[in-house]
Amino acid sequence: MAVRQHDAPEGAQAPQKAETLVLASASPRRLDLLAQIGIAPDVVAPAHIDETPEKDELPKPHAERLAREKAAAISPEHPGALVLAADTVVAVGKRILPKAEDEATARHCLKMLSGRRHKVISGISVVLPGGHQITKSVTTTVAFKVLSETDIEQYIESGEWDGKAGGYAIQGLAATYVRFLSGSYSNVVGLPLFEVGGWMNAHLTKQDQS
User: Fold this and answer.
1) Of 1, 67, 109, 135, whose CB is crowded by the most CB atoms within 10 A?
2) Which residues carry out catalysis?
């Protein structure tokens, strides 16, 4: 794992020992977030799996399942490595909002989010070098202001919705829509750094003691 030594957020300190780390994600946001805590993956290997929700699947189990399947799909290709995978879901109640691949979907998502609270759930899964897999999820509650038609059209024109779960990215223009947030901000961006940093340090501590 390529590690740079610099300041990291409290509770998410960068690990101190070199080890091969594989990130099973193509998300540039997750790469940027890992860089914030001094981690640069040795390999970026996106997992190509079917992300369609199963019948009656709820948001939290869905996010955890996808993260688990992504890590499990990539791990056999990199024996002995530490594999990290994640999947982020935006949910209104029990409803999983789609990734916005077109303007119509983005508008639909923004109208669903307007003036109400929603959950951003990230499933995160790690396959350790010995093959043991750990999966959990982190939930952040976010509330948007009531969005006017002008707000929605400006956001559509920005293009920031493209490919984003729930049709928005909190680190851009949508930050001006957030009137309330409870939980991990980095989780909404795409990776909960407190938990990921803790996992990395816990694993390396066990290695040092073995």
Assistant:
1) 67
2) 87
Q: Model-level pTM?
A: 0.86
Domains observed in the chain: 2-209 (3.90.950.10)
Predicted confidence (pLDDT) per residue in 60-116, tens digit: 999 999 999 999 999 999 999 999 999 999 999 999 999 999 999 999 999 999 999
Among 148, 206, 190, 160, smallest CA distance to 29 is for: 190
139 to each of 4, 106, 207, how far by Cα in Å?
28, 22, 29
Burial of 47 by CB count in 10 Å (0-12 exposed, 13-18 middle, 19+ buried)? buried
